[in-house]
């Protein structure tokens, strides 16, 4: 065990009946680190959080906090506090009673409880609301009461189960920063469950992307964003444009064969683990350039060029978003200038923005797995990207 | 404006059947009973009440005390049952309890009285079992067929009803409010009384008020279990009418038990009004 390691999850299996939600998952978290568990619904991220908190008992495996095995300890003996998605405030108690309940259970003197509760109310911007019932608070205030209740008992680890998902979009942006600033200030270790990529990127030191009860990839936000380890991660991190390419590897480069929809390109391997064959290529709308087809030839190593024509354009703000038909695919590409519908274009994807993955030999692609289905329709709604 | 008058008549015609049923079957009998309570041989007066209190004061107190004790016990038991159904950690025990506790709901009061009469008598099943088990000697055997029998019968019959309401309200609670308390280190008993019961208090009040009023009106149980003095008001009313044809005192006793039920109902109404406000 390394010195820094504080919370360790070892080969934990959690499931009900014969189906396992977590499949032998291991994770290690440093003291003071803010880790985001990111994944779509049903991937097991909340189950992992509940297993850490002590509400879901693992079938096998172990959970250690600071070197101590807590796998079989009840939730309150683990030095952790959980903030629930629904906040789970007690409606019959006032704000002060909610925040102070954990202290009352610990047998703290009433005067000390009052002092600590007031401290927390000031810290969380709840001063003067102590005598209100949760029903008389706004969503953001309730969320802060839930946070205060968790922080009151001075937990070593703060567990957050989608605490922002019930807030308005605008308040959410502010609370994101509030929570991560508070976490840094208190030096507390935090595990945050979310399905919101941007939220995870902004708040966390490390992102753990989960898929089907396993960890698909983990790393710093920029690492996961720029070097996705699998098509799933690439798609989850926003690279939803997908095409298939054929190519060969050699001399530190990958040579993409030309086809009806793309020109030949030679790209640096740059650490990609690829072999000859068929590739699934993914890129983000903002990671590609739209060039009006002027026939001018560029150097082949500038990136990958796809040829197609514009089907629609919309303005979500900042840049124009175009849906471009390339062969059978419809790809979304951003451009600072609008391009007219029907215009023949080249989509240029710089090598660093192109994520390539070997496709298991066969050229047939399961249509239903394409996240790009209905891409044209999505262009038309003002995208929130 | 010209439309208003015919419309009003049409509206009255539409509600007339329902109104007539209520007036004829509910308001008129109630009013005649209330008036009857004040009717004496020579006009109106409080003679019936004087006689009722003179003869039955101990029975009135007996009734209110017994029903109150039963209500408190029903409340405690239904919280215990509901609490175990929500917080119990042995799934099999929870399933068995969930299946069992509702049975008395389907047994009529008169049958409950009969069952308990054979069970609680001095030479009844309960004492026989205790004697066979060597826990008491035959000389120590006592009959429970007095106020205790009535309380047992009421609690036996009414607990499932309140427990049904209470456990329904408990299982409708946001489960994370329970987990949040567990997360902070609350024991199951504290969770039950500090987190769960306050959140289902209104539902429990409704159940207990309805139980109180039901128990006030049961005749079969006191007749089956406790046919001696003091007994419950219902038995006295039946006796006044059947033995003496004395409707005046019977009506007065009825009005007294109506007032007792009314107090509880008023308490409940005040509580719900406060919550709505």
Automatic annotation (TrEMBL), chain A:
Keyword ATP-binding: yes
An example Gene Ontology molecular-function term: ATP binding
Keywords annotated in UniProt: ATP-binding, Nucleotide-binding, Transport
Family matches, as InterPro entries: AAA+_ATPase, ABC_SmlMolc_Importer, ABC_transporter-like_ATP-bd, ABC_transporter-like_CS, Mo/tungstate-bd_C_term_dom, P-loop_NTPase
Pfam families for this protein: ABC_tran (PF00005)
Domain of life per record: Bacteria
Transport is among the record's keywords: yes
The ABC transporter domain, residue ranges: 7-237
Family to which the UniProt record says this protein belongs: Belongs to the ABC transporter superfamily.
Listed name of the protein: ABC transporter ATP-binding protein
Organism: Aquamicrobium zhengzhouense
Automatic annotation (TrEMBL), chain B:
CDD domains linked: TM_PBP2
Pfam families assigned: BPD_transp_1
Lineage: superkingdom: Bacteria
Matching InterPro entries: MetI-like, MetI-like_sf
Membrane topology: Multi-pass membrane protein
Primary location class: membrane
Family as reported in the entry's similarity comment: Belongs to the binding-protein-dependent transport system permease family. CysTW subfamily.
Protein name per UniProt: ABC transporter permease subunit
Native source species: Aquamicrobium zhengzhouense
């Amino acid at each position: 065990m390394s010195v820094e390691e504080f919370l360790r999850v070892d080969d934990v299996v959690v499931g009900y009946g014969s189906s396992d939600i977590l499949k032998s998952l291991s994770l290690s978290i440093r003291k003071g680190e803010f880790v985001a568990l990111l994944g779509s619904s049903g991937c097991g991220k909340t189950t992992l959080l509940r297993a850490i908190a002590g509400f879901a008992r693992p079938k096998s495996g172990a959970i250690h906090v600071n070197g101590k095995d807590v796998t079989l300890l009840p939730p309150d003996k683990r030095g952790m506090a959980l903030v629930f998605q629904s906040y789970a405030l007690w409606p019959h108690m006032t704000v002060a009673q909610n925040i102070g309940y954990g202290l009352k259970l610990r047998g703290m003197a009433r005067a000390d409880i009052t002092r600590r509760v007031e401290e927390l109310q000031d810290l969380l911007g709840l001063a003067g609301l102590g005598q209100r019932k949760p029903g008389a608070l706004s969503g953001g205030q309730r969320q802060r009461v839930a946070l205060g209740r968790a922080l009151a008992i001075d937990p070593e680890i703060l567990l957050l189960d989608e605490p922002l998902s019930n807030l308005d979009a605008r308040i959410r942006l502010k609370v994101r920063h509030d929570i991560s600033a508070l976490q840094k200030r208190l030096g507390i270790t935090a595990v945050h469950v979310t399905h919101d990529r941007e939220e995870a990127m902004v708040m966390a030191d490390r992102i753990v992307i989960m898929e089907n009860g396993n960890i698909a990839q983990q790393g710093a936000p920029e690492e996961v964003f720029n070097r996705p380890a699998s098509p799933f991660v690439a798609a989850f991190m926003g690279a939803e444009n997908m095409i298939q390419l054929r190519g060969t590897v050699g001399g530190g480069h990958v040579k993409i064969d030309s086809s009806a929809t793309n020109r030949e390109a030679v790209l640096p391997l740059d650490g990609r683990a690829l072999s000859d064959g068929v590739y699934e290529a993914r890129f983000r709308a903002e990671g590609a350039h739209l060039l009006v087809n002027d026939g001018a030839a560029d150097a082949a190593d500038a990136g990958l060029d796809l040829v197609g024509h514009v089907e629609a354009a919309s303005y979500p703000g900042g840049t124009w978003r175009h849906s471009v038909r390339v062969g059978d695919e419809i790809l979304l590409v951003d451009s600072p200038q609008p391009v007219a519908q029907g215009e023949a274009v080249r989509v240029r994807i710089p090598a660093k923005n192109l994520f390539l993955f070997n496709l298991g030999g066969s050229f047939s692609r399961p249509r239903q797995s394409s996240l790009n289905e209905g891409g044209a329709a999505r262009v038309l709604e003002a995208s929130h990207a | 404006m010209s439309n208003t008058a015919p419309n009003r008549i049409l509206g009255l015609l539409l509600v007339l059947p329902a109104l007539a049923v209520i007036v004829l079957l509910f308001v008129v009998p109630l009013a005649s009973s209330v008036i009857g309570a004040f009717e004496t041989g020579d006009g109106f007066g409080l003679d019936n009440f004087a006689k009722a209190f003179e003869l039955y004061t101990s029975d009135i107190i007996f009734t209110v005390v017994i029903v109150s004790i039963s209500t408190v016990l029903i409340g405690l038991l239904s919280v215990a049952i509901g609490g175990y159904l929500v917080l119990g950690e042995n799934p099999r025990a929870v399933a068995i309890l969930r299946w069992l506790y509702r049975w008395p709901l389907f047994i009529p009061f008169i049958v409950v009285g009969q069952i308990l009469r054979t069970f609680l008598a001095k030479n009844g099943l309960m004492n026989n079992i205790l004697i066979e088990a060597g826990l008491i000697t035959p000389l120590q055997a006592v009959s429970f067929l007095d106020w205790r029998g009535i309380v047992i019968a009421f609690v036996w019959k009414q607990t499932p009803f309140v427990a049904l309401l209470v456990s329904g309200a408990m299982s409708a609670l946001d489960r994370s409010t329970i987990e949040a308390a567990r997360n902070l280190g609350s024991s199951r008993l504290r969770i039950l009384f500090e987190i769960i019961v306050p959140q289902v208090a209104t539902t429990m009040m409704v159940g207990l008020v309805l139980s109180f009023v039901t128990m006030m009106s049961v005749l079969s149980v006191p007749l089956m279990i406790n046919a001696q003095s003091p007994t419950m008001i219902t038995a006295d009313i039946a006796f006044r009418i059947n033995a003496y044809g004395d409707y005046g005192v019977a009506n007065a006793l009825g009005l007294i038990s109506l007032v007792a039920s009314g107090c509880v109902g008023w308490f409940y109404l005040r509580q719900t009004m406060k919550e709505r406000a």
